[in-house]
Amino acid sequence: MKKIILACLASFAVVATAAPISFDFKDPKGVNAVQFHLDSLLEPISGSANGVSGMVSFDPAAPASTAGTILITANSLMVSNATMTEHLHGSKWLDVGSYPEITFELTSLSDAKTTNNTTSAVAQGKFTLKGVTQEIAVPVRITYLADALGKRTKPGNKGDLLVIRGEFTVRRADFGIQSGQNEDKVSPEITLKVAIVGSAPKA
User: Which residue in 8, 74, 78, 103 has the most C-beta neighbors within 10 A?
Assistant: First the structure.
């Protein structure tokens, strides 16, 4: 019995002192994407952006200490209509030539609750779009998958995965995107849905 107790204590000590793990969100499979939707009166518009990258530091023993930045390449935002995509990238809308990145810098997690390997929380951070930065709060679910890298990529690859899911809405007027214009065709609100995975390879 004494040996069992000592083994449990040792295991707990390893977890408690585990260092944060750095996860890379530039997906080698090219699957990561952020979905966006503008539900206007005349023309509901949906699209996606696959130019996702960034680094997130996650400690399985202390999920609330999660920090990092997720970036989206602005010219990777696409809708099914090529002309509308061109307008989206243009100077009157996102002006991707002048503002090539959309970013979310995570500054803290609040109300973090962990069940098994998934942490539900509110991600507080700085969201930057078209050169304007706003403080926002995003409900998220963060799932830590230890030793799962080989299952997603190539058998034999060692490492962990971190899956981040969340959904939030911003107003385009807050970011200087055609405020008050064309609201019958382009909703004043943009809903973004995030479901992305980061990897942390092990030697």
Answer: 74
Asked if residue 169 lies in contact with residue 191, where contact means CB atoms within 8 angstroms, the answer is yes
Residue 37, phi then psi, degrees to nearest 5: -145, 135
Q: Express each pLDDT in 166-192 by its tens digit.
A: 999 999 999 999 998 889 999 999 999
Let me know: does 35 contact 193? Beta carbons within 8 Å: yes
Strand partners, 102: 72
Distance CA 199, CA 65 (A): 18
The three-state secondary structure class of 151 is: helix
Domains within the chain, CATH numbers bracketed: 19-201 (2.40.128.110)
3-class DSSP state of 43 = coil
Residue type, 167: E
Say what the pTM is: 0.88
Q: Are 40 and 184 in contact (CB under 8 A)?
A: yes
d(CA 34, CA 36): 7
